[in-house]
Amino acid sequence: MGELKKRAGATKGKKEKPAVAYWDLKFNIMQLSEFTGVSRANIYKLISEKVIVGEEIQNGVAKKTIYTWKDLETVINSRFCEKRVDSIDLQIKVFANLKGGTGKSSTSSQFAMTSAAMGYRVLLVDLDPQAQASLALGFDNLEDGIPTVYNCLGERPGSPDYLPIEKCVQAVTPFLSLIRASFDLSQLDFKLQTSRFGVTKFAEMLDSLRGRFDLIVIDTNPSGSISNIHALMAADEVCVIAETDYMSVAGLRQFFKLLNELKDDFGDSFSPAVRVIANKFDVREAIAQEALGSLRKNYGEQLAKIVVRKNVDLKEAQKRAMPIWAYNKRSTASKDLFALTHELLDESGLSHD
Questions:
Q1: Residues 6 or more apart whose Cβ sits within 8 Å of residue 89
Q2: Cα–Cα distance for residue pair 98/221, rounded to 1 Å
Q3: Which of 65, 170, 301, 351 has a 20 to 30 Å separation from 192 between CA atoms?
Q4: What is the pLDDT of residue 294?
């Protein structure tokens, strides 16, 4: 990870948690147990057998042992772990909405980071020129020459900057990989419009990664762009992030119109499941209560059971390139997003619980 750039540390004059990029996260024994499903007693057995050793650090006047991604990987592969992901068929989840500001990028990146910590082999694809999902992992230098999704989808084979999709995949941890966004993506729709690629080309590229990943998470840009159509055509499930306010709920009709048009145009070749996720819910706001009621009335079983509540901790975690559970495990955002991750994995047959 030598080429990766960490974000700046604490803000001057204000005591804050230091920035810790996702790949530098450390775990305690309780977290190893929670994410892997292995009991703490069995983790202690692995420690006593020196299967995992961790790192000893100074914690005030005392010392404590912390564990790395490599240790988590070892626990996942241990004889005690019932989570076996090798036989799982690839699932592609596309997070989308025509409206910006709904929390699409934060939800998709948090879902990807949490699923990866649970031991699933996850690829996060950032298809938004604003690169919020890439930034959420700690990639704050978007002009460092590292391949992006533009190299495989925006460039034609044979051009100097073209790369096959597998060359654009960047390992972040043993379980999470990323295909980064770049500012070049603002030109992607023009390139796709003038190319000979059909709208299933991206799906074919992603399918070539089958066997390497269990889960592909795609963060799209807030529009009905051609690049988003490519992503939707690849989807096993479309996760529509709806902010609980009047404008966001009203705007969902346009997105579902787009989905229906794709169904009319492509028939059975376009048949993803659709999940609506209510986000940024504030129980104190009457408009939020009304919006949630409208979502429940209009989308019924398509609406996720978990409602993600508004919480400033999520913004702080995103700013520090941390999963919310590492920033503040006790926050409502942490509890909601952890539960949502389980729900989305359960409905896809990915959960091992």
A1: none
A2: 8
A3: 170
A4: 95
